[in-house]
Design a protein that fits this description.
The complex is a heterodimer. By secondary structure, chain A is mainly β. Chain A has no helices and 11 strands. In chain A, the strands form 2 sheets. In chain A, strands 2, 4, 5, 6, 9, 10 and 11 form a 7-stranded mixed sheet that branches. In chain A, strands 1-3-8-7 form a 4-stranded antiparallel sheet, with no helix packed on it. In chain B, the strands form 2 sheets. In chain B, strands 1, 3, 4, 7, 8 and 9 form a 6-stranded mixed sheet that branches. Chain B is globular. By secondary structure, chain B is an all-beta fold. The chains are: A mainly beta, B mainly beta. The interface of A and B includes residues 50 and 108 of A.
Chain lengths: ~120, ~110
């Protein structure tokens, strides 16, 4: 069974940093792109960042580029998201999501974790 | 950046059919995917590549892209289908995943 388990969320002050982790199981981790998607309270889904299976191709949403960094450790089936210079607008549930295809392309999200909540507040 | 627009809400009686559209410039050149999100839960992929259905998704859920307007259709709607639904594409030009604005389906 495919599982994604996020951790690392919490309450932080504006300007602070946080590191999210997502541990995967049930599939050949190194073959698939992994992503972070967030959802602010009462709002829609917003893609944040994605990383290819081998880690060489990385993309960011414009809203987080230069502040967030995605990485992965294929030996530990884990993907990370480093969040720096956090603002209130970054408050959201952060989901880890697996791409459907192992072809190296980016397409859609066929499996999601349950999310970890990041709250940025004075 | 690429924008996908959905109707904010759709209301449907039990047993009837709900249709949710997704509009975007030249959307016919994209593969469109659809997600269901129930309150307090993570999204679930219900249609991929315009009309594919993942295993475990009821046949009542179907997708189409005819007439250049991607549409998610839910037949014989049940109370348990009440949720938010999002369309999504991968935009090669910007190298971004893009979600639609979301549609809240209410079962009357």
């Amino acid at each position: 069974e495919v599982q994604l388990l996020e951790s690392g969320g919490g309450l932080v002050r504006p300007g602070a940093s946080l590191r999210l982790s997502c541990v995967a199981s049930g599939f050949t981790f190194r073959k698939y792109a992994l992503n972070w998607v967030r959802q602010a309270p009462g709002k829609g889904l917003e893609w944040v960042s994605g990383i290819s299976g081998g880690g060489k191709t990385i993309h960011y949403a414009d809203s987080v580029k230069g502040r967030f960094t995605i990485s992965r450790d294929n030996s530990k089936s884990t993907v990370f998201l480093q969040l720096n210079s956090l603002t209130a607008e970054d408050t959201a549930e952060y989901y880890c999501a697996k791409d459907q295809y192992d072809s190296g392309t980016f397409s859609n999200f066929d499996m999601w974790g349950q999310g970890t909540l990041v709250t940025v507040s004075p | 950046s690429y924008v996908l627009t959905q109707p904010p809400s759709v209301s449907v009686a039990p047993g009837q059919t709900a249709k949710i559209t997704c509009y975007g410039t030249n959307i016919g050149r994209y593969s469109v995917h659809w997600y269901q999100q129930k309150p307090g839960q993570a999204p679930v992929l219900v249609v991929y590549d315009d009309s594919g259905r993942p295993s475990g998704i009821p046949e009542r859920f179907s997708g189409s892209a005819s007439g250049n307007t991607p549409t998610l259709t839910i037949r014989r709607v049940e109370a348990g289908d009440e949720a938010d639904y999002y369309c999504q594409v991968w935009d090669d030009g910007s190298a971004h995943y893009v979600f639609g604005t979301g549609t809240k389906v209410t079962v009357l």
